[in-house]
Structures are given as C-alpha cells and as structure tokens.
Amino acid sequence: xxxxxxxxxxxxxxxxxxxxxxxxxxxxxxxxxxxxxxxxxxxxxxxxxxxxxxxxxxxxxxxxxxxxxxxxxxxxxxxxxxxxxxxxxxxxxxxxxxxxxxxxxxxxxxxxxxxxxxxxxxxxxxxxxxxxxxxxxxxxxxxxxxxxxxxxxxxxxxxxxxxxxxxxxxxxxxxxxxxxxxxxxxxxxxxxxxxxxxxxxxxxxxxxxxxxxxxxxxxxxxxxxxxxxxxxxxxxxxxxxxxxxxxxxxxxxxxxxxxxxxxxxxxxxxxxxxxxxxxxxxxxxxxxxxxxxxxxxxxxxxxxxxxxxxxxxxxxxxxxxxxxxxxxxxxxxxxxxxxxxxxxxxxxxxxxxxxxxxxxxxxxxxxxxxxxxxxxx
Length: 377
Known about the structure:
InterPro entries: Beta-lactam-related, Beta-lactam/transpept-like, Diverse_Enzym_Activities. It holds the Pfam family Beta-lactamase. It comes from Kribbella orskensis. This is CubicO group peptidase (Beta-lactamase class C family). By secondary structure, the protein is of the alpha+beta class. The protein has two domains: 6-61 and 202-376, DD-peptidase/beta-lactamase superfamily (Beta-lactamase), CATH 3.40.710.10; 71-198, Beta-lactamase (3-Layer(aba) Sandwich), CATH 3.40.710.10. It is built from twelve helices and 16 strands. The protein has helices spanning 6-16, 62-75, 117-121, 137-144, 161-169, 186-198, 202-211, 269-280, 293-299, 306-309, 312-317, 365-376, and strands at residues 24-31, 34-41, 56-57, 96-98, 108-110, 232-235, 241-245, 266-267, 284-285, 288-289, 322-323, 328-329, 334-338, 342-347, 352-357, 360-361. A seven-stranded antiparallel beta sheet has the order 2-1-15-14-13-12-11, with helices on both faces. A three-stranded mixed beta sheet has the order 7-6-16, with no helix packed on it. 50% of the residues are buried. The radius of gyration is 20 Å and the shape is globular.
C-alpha cells in the first residue's frame, strides 16, 4: 500500500495560495484506510492560521447529500423515481413550456409530461441557467421573483419553501421535462418536495436520515460556532480579494428561511470525509447499510443521453463527464464541487476519497487543478 503523497499535496496547494487566489485551505484524503487531514495557509486575509476544524460553505457539494436523502426515501417506499412531483407539489401541476428559450414568458405550449422525482435528481426538470442565449426572459422573471438564481447566499431567498414553490409555479419551463440537462434549480425544487414527502423541515430530515447517522455534527444550513467559520472571498477585479460573506455576521449565522437543497450547507473537511467514505463503502457506514446497493449504483452511473451531454450546461459544468444522481461521474471517479471553492471526488478503483476546501468565488481553478494533478500523479 503506497502512502498518501502528503508532502506533494501540501506543497502543491501551498504554492497556489495567496492574496489573489485564496488565503488558505483544508485538504482531506482517505486512501485504503489511511487518512490525511491538513490545514494550509490562513483562514483569512488578516492572517489567522487555518485549522483543520474550520467550517466552509460547501455550496453545490450539498447536492450529493440531498441525492442520498432522496434515494433513502425511495428505498423506504416513501416515493419512487417515477412519481410525478405534483403528488407533493401541486403548484407544479399542468406545466407549460416556452416556445423559445429567448422568447416571451407568455408564449408557451403544454408540457409533454409531468416532472418526475428523477427529473429533479438528474437536473432534467426543464429549468435553470440559460447560457446559450443572450437574453432569457423567464430566467430574468425567476430572478425578479427572488428564486435564488445567483450566487449561493441564504439571504438571496427571502421567503419560505411554500412561497418559493408558489412563485416558481407561476413560471413556464424552459424545455419539456426529461429533455435536457440544465443547472441547477431542480435541487431547490427537490428540497421542497423532500420536506413535504418526509413530513419534516429539510434541515431536520437531512440531519435525521443522513448527517446524524454519519456523525456529521458540524454540517448544516446554519453555523452555530461562528468562531470556526472562515470568511468567503470574491475577486475584487484588480487581482485581489474582497469579502463576499464575512465570518462574523455571516449569512450562515442563523437558519435560513429557505434551506436550499442545491447549495445551502456548511461543513468541515473531516465531516465531508465521513460522507465520502460512506460512498466509498457503497452506501454503508460502520458495517451498516444505509443506502441500497441498487440506489448507490444508480447514483454513481451516468444518467444522461448522448444528446444531453452536448447541451450548454453540460459543456460548461461537466466538461465531457456524465451526471448520475447528485454527482458528476466518469470511468474513474465520481463527486462534485462547490461554486465557493470546494471540491470532492471518490476514485472507487483506488478506494480513495479526496476533498479540498477553500472559500473563494469563483473557485480558484489553479489551486483546485494543482490539488487534483498532485493526487493523480
């Protein structure tokens, strides 16, 4: 068994840190039972040292956890993948679809079929970011309704789940359900559905079914221990960094009105490594199976058609890889990243899980690339 290349990884990450990229990072690797957990650099531009128990906003790394929760409810018979979502979300019954992506919101046709639970998991609901057109009136209407179409800040959505889904239900879809992969509003819808199907608020349901069983006590939609939360930065336009969300007075300091299943969680490297190791074990934890073998295999199998791989969202976000349920998948690995500078992938054939957490919008690509290149070399 080869040792984890800790010196190489730490050097590669450390060389990329700085006032123009990110002040610090935490990395965690599990490799055939060996574990590396290290902090590099500083927690903030003010110079406080980074610590391994630092809390990060993991944004879209929320999606894999929510996908597991969904599949657990499928295993339990609470819902099925083929269920129309209007069973729980009557606000989304009788959908209409735009005639043209860049066309007027009122020029629509009836949807060919209902949205299903699987459409939400695979982000083939028919609504999300529209990069292929210069102007998309329905996306602008979603933004005007406060549906959270921008960066993942809890305060961006100022209403609760019932009002959120009612507002979304006022809009037509961009395309017919199941026809295209489009990032990423489907998971916001999924969170509302799960709370109704599970008869609990999303945060409580996720904690009861996933976080608590895995011992992820530092993961949630709010961060009670603000002392461990690191500031989140964004590029300031002149080669430096400006505060996007502070540690003290953070948007994550209190429970959000709308717990966003697509990107609302905060966590630590050691907590997320517990989830990664659960996935390496095929959906089992400490010898106890929490997710069925069939559900795990489906989650980590590409669900997209060849045509869906060529859509604008897929080209931008997946870069030639596929999408299962909540995770990007390729022949050698599966996992996902977050838009505030976090990344996780499992390599099942190597029985390796790896996580890098930093906090910067957009993610510092040279830093992330250096980490993965060093791990793969």
